[in-house]
Amino acid sequence: MKPAPFAYVRPATLDDAVAELAATDGDGKVLAGGQSLVPVLAMRLGRPGTLVDINAVAGLDGLERRDGALRIGATVRQRHVERSSAAAAVPLLGLALPFVGHRELRSRGTVCGSLAHADPGAELPAVALCLGAALEVTGPRGRRTVRAADFFQGAMTTAVGPDEILTAVQFPAAGPGEGFGFAELARRHGDFALAGVVTRVRSRDGAVAEAVLSGFGVSDRPVTRDVTELVRAAAGEADVETALRPGTEELAREMVDTAGDAHGSQGYRRRLFAVLAARELARAHRRATESPS
């Protein structure tokens, strides 16, 4: 299929981009990498009247570490982040990005584009949620910052208004005593995950101070839980992963609410989620305790 007809504009400044989007009266879409948007247009699942291409907008291609965070602009490609030494400040990005589509898609797709698209099976929204990322949104009323916990509101639905643009995201840099884990299972590499988990554990003086578990591909949006007490209770056992399993099985029953399909029943996804969660929480705990506090 081919996209329905649309108008195309390519502004050079952020103010012009916001003005062009506002002028569409809710009938416009922002184009950055296009790796999610273009297939939607081609299948006519979306029919915006205007595409506002922000690739020429100055200042949206920045990737820098400042004030204890990694700031990624709206037009920064996933592959650039994947290969950047600056991104080492956020280990979870290094763990997750190789699983985002294929290398060719990551060379064009953007980090902010994946977050704005908010596919419930996507990796980067779950990473943002697990880390407590801050998302910068710009519109006619100025710029505002939205916490990741408030950003994802449903399948392909975010806190970005129809006249606003996601202009950057800030991921907190890893601190001392932090460990991370990431895993997903898909039928083929690059496919959407049947279930995926993102984990973060912070230790202080050898004890668990904080633990967070996020999941994707298991609900209509990325989901997260504070699992500090669960990891703290298992930390003293000889086999931490095995000790975590009863708790992650209970979490799976709570967090995995997507219906079954041809690729896997709900029960299968819950079992898969429980196994991955226990494994990656144990891995994050080990990394956290091995990291200098």
Automatic annotation (TrEMBL):
Transmembrane residue ranges: none
InterPro entries from the UniProt entry: CO_DH_flav_C, CO_DH_flav_C_dom_sf, Diverse_Substr_Oxidored, FAD-bd_PCMH, FAD-bd_PCMH-like_sf, FAD-bd_PCMH_sub1, FAD-bd_PCMH_sub2, Mopterin_DH_FAD-bd
UniProt GO molecular function: FAD binding; oxidoreductase activity
Keywords attached to this entry: FAD, Flavoprotein, Oxidoreductase
Domain (FAD-binding PCMH-type): residue spans on this chain: 1-176
Domain of life: Bacteria
Claim: Flavoprotein is one of the keywords in the record: yes
SUPFAM superfamilies for the chain: CO dehydrogenase flavoprotein C-terminal domain-like, FAD-binding/transporter-associated domain-like
Coiled-coil annotated spans: none
Leader sequence residues: none
SMART domains listed in its UniProt record: CO_deh_flav_C
Keyword Oxidoreductase tagged: yes
Matching PANTHER family: XANTHINE DEHYDROGENASE SUBUNIT C-RELATED
Protein name in UniProt: Carbon-monoxide dehydrogenase medium subunit
